[in-house]
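User: Hey, my collaborator sent me this sequence without any context and asked if I could get a structure. I don't really work with proteins. Can you help?
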Amino acid sequence: MLSRRVKAGILLCASAVLGTCVRPPSLLEEIQATGELRVVTRNGPHTYFTSGEGPAGPEYDLIRGFADFLGVRLRLMVVDRPTDVLPAVVGGTAHLAAAGLTVNPETAGLVDFGPVFQQVTEHLVYREGRRRPRDVAQLRGKRLEVASGTSYVKTLTRAQARHPELVWTENPVADQQDLLTRVAQGSLDYTVVKSNAFAVYRTYIPEIRVAFNLAEGESVAWAFPKRADASLREAAARYFETIRATGELDRILDHYYGTVPRIDYVGTRQYMKDVRARLPSYRALFRAAATEHDLDWRLLAAIGYQESKWDPEAVSPTGVRGLMMLTEETATTFGIEDRTDAAQSIHGGARYFAHILDKLPATIQEPDRTWFALASYNIGYGHLLDARRLTRERGGDWNRWNDVRPHIRLLADPAIAARTRHGYARGGETLHFVNNVRTYYNALAWATRDENGDDGTPWLQQRSAPPAIQAYLGRIKVATRPTTNRRG
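Assistant: No problem. I've predicted the 3D structure and written it out in structure-token form, which is a compact way to encode the shape of the chain:
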């Protein structure tokens, strides 16, 4: 049976009067004519998932932007198994695949890969507290499992060519979270995960650690039909060139991966314990303060934990005190009489943070606005202004967090600080503060992901700055019988 595209070509070439053959439309022209871009993807933290505000994920944000770039609507096709992704492109069901795919020789014969937009590493992962394997030879006799149809199978196959004794199991239905959770619980010795996914999961599964890298310098790209007509792939190249130039690509990647945990295993585990044991005493206070000032209570709680570990009696050597660690001047300004009173401290911190958000220029949009406010909460508004001015002087965009962030660190350089209005500041500590708050917020958002019904959509989500995977991580599948691979 002839495809619609072939039939159209025959009809266009059937004019005996003209004696000429009109060129059939390109794939890009077909998409623009129908007004629809069909994209196959998978559910996952580094691809596509559904959050409190709707569709999200790094691949989703990129592909949605590409559809807007082409001026067409986006139609997503979500498949369950990795092995279903490329057949959808090869068979013509999808125009392209955006599913966290890495370029490799085995699949390059089936599809054409588009512009590379991210470099990742494939980690072998084990459980903290167990003996760390140093190389493939030390995996003998251990339980190593990966999902069927993933790039990990190809990586292990290449490793097996050098180490014939390497044995692993392919699970046909388990997703990445299932396998990582089993490693953390001790029912599985090892699995393999890409570095970008590990950066997200580590916040929620703190027991997992990297043993060594199985593959480095893996390129992430979209997959296109393998055909002489490269119009769609060339349009994608123009799109990525545009979002690189505007900083949108960096913004998307930072949004989902910029909170790679700076907190070590012990700190992350202790935080999750404190969420269960200490937070309940202050949760209602955080909720009340957040409601009053139109904030997300979990963001306030994350700030409080970074400041004091939720200790109302905390005191720093510099004189700030209380659960939100307010200075005496700030407490006076916002009507706080007793900084060591938990309720007063939390409400004072909320008023102060809301005040900073309102004070920032309207040219700063979310999510950058929140990151700027967090930096100002820690370092002071004057030093933030200095960092923004330095950014503008050096040709950066002073309204973008990614551009301003390195200049905050420069405030600790006496030579540079001497040229600023407000002088020296410990910019490195401020970046540490912002990173930790973002990590604590993400972890808390996941831990309370089913509690949004009583207080509406989270504040950061309303401003298009949701944490990466709070909805996705609640999904657990039941694994079927896996298949053991013994090759060599």
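In plain terms: The domain at 265-465 is CATH 1.10.530.10 (Lysozyme). You can pass these tokens on to your collaborator as they are.
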